[in-house]
Automatic annotation (TrEMBL), chains A, B:
Iron-sulfur found in the keyword field: no
InterPro entries, per the entry: Homeodomain-like_sf (IPR009057), HTH-type_TetR-like_transc_reg (IPR050109), HTH_TetR (IPR001647), Tet_transcr_reg_TetR-rel_C_sf (IPR036271), TetR_C (IPR011075)
The entry's keywords: DNA-binding, Transcription, Transcription regulation
Origin superkingdom: Bacteria
Record carries keyword Endoplasmic reticulum: no
GO MF terms held by the record: DNA-binding transcription factor activity; transcription cis-regulatory region binding
Species, as recorded: Nocardioides cavernaquae
Pfam families registered for this protein in UniProt: TetR_C_11 (PF16859), TetR_N (PF00440)
Positions of the HTH tetR-type domain: 9-69
This protein's name: TetR/AcrR family transcriptional regulator
Regions recorded as binding DNA: 32-51
């Protein structure tokens, strides 16, 4: 069967994989629909049929590409699991082009409402929901406070990392995320 | 004495005040050097002599304009003081054009290294230093843990607010900052 006759679900997966790889390996500056088309073997017309803009394609490809790296482990200890996941998150932001790419997408979204909508629908809302689900699972087995506002904890762990990514006054590293986790689990009071 | 002979410190203050007022009242979209010149009575040439770009002028004006609103109260109770200051901060971001203006400046800074440098030098680093000083004063009198990493707390209070400002998946309001403070002071563990 020729390439043109591949099932569309398969083509879609290959386009997303090419988009995610391109973003992580080379950043948003090098990201074009042409390159994704060349890497995936899909036509530009096919790609434009499924994604309204290169930002939307980059974000959906990135979400798929990082899903396994950012999966939440479940060793039975939520504090240790959050720490491991946050280390993987910070490594992804600092050791690949993903950090700069996300920063540029978030930056551009401040004056581009369509990109903001794509960012929230395709990336930030689903990632937030996964984090809240992991925190609520820990509430359910009594490892976190029963009255915990899990949404605010998301802003104090991953949101704090985005703050250092976007305004790099201080380093975004393992020591930082260890301090974030220690502040929340140990409390800051004397 | 004519306007042209005002002492330069006075002119500088009036330019900064005009810049800060313009940013808070009308946002970055309406911010021009021409308008600041007209409002302050200074010439455009004078303004360009002191500030390399309109971003740098907007940021320094904004810093001066919000300094008293964002001052840290000291009632002897650091938890209550942080809560009041954060309420004032969130009100400033949501009830004036300041929130959108800062979001656009941070956004543009992701692809404009000069603006990022101005933002960090003129706004984010000095504001961070003021917050760290307030937290360390509370450590010194035994209200916060002696081994506290104050820098990371800045990212979990104000940084968490910037996260909701820049990626508005959830509301940025008083309930949110109350949850941030409660998580840090009460701890999230069961």
């Amino acid at each position: 069967m020729g390439r043109g006759r591949r099932p569309s679900a398969e083509v879609r997966d290959e386009v997303l994989q090419a988009a995610g790889d391109l973003l992580v390996d080379q950043g948003m500056g090098a990201f074009t629909i042409e390159k994704v088309a060349a890497l995936s073997g899909a036509s530009k017309m096919t790609i434009y049929k499924w994604w309204p803009s290169k930002g939307a394609l980059a974000l959906e490809g990135y979400f798929s590409a990082v899903e396994s790296t950012l999966a939440f482990p479940d060793t039975g200890n939520v504090r240790a699991d959050l720490r491991s996941q946050l280390h993987a998150f910070v490594d992804l932001l600092s050791m690949t082009h993903a950090g700069r790419a996300l920063a540029q997408l978030i930056g551009q979204a401040q004056t581009d409402p369509d990109l903001m909508e794509s960012y929230r629908a395709t990336y930030s809302s689903p990632r937030r929901a996964l984090a809240v689900a992991r925190l609520e699972a820990a509430v359910a087995i009594g490892q976190l406070r029963a009255d915990l506002d899990a949404e605010s904890v998301v802003d104090q762990l991953w949101g704090a990392c985005y703050h250092r990514l976007l305004i790099p006054d201080r380093p975004l590293d393992h020591d930082f995320v260890d301090a974030l986790v220690a502040n929340l689990f140990g409390g800051v009071g004397a």
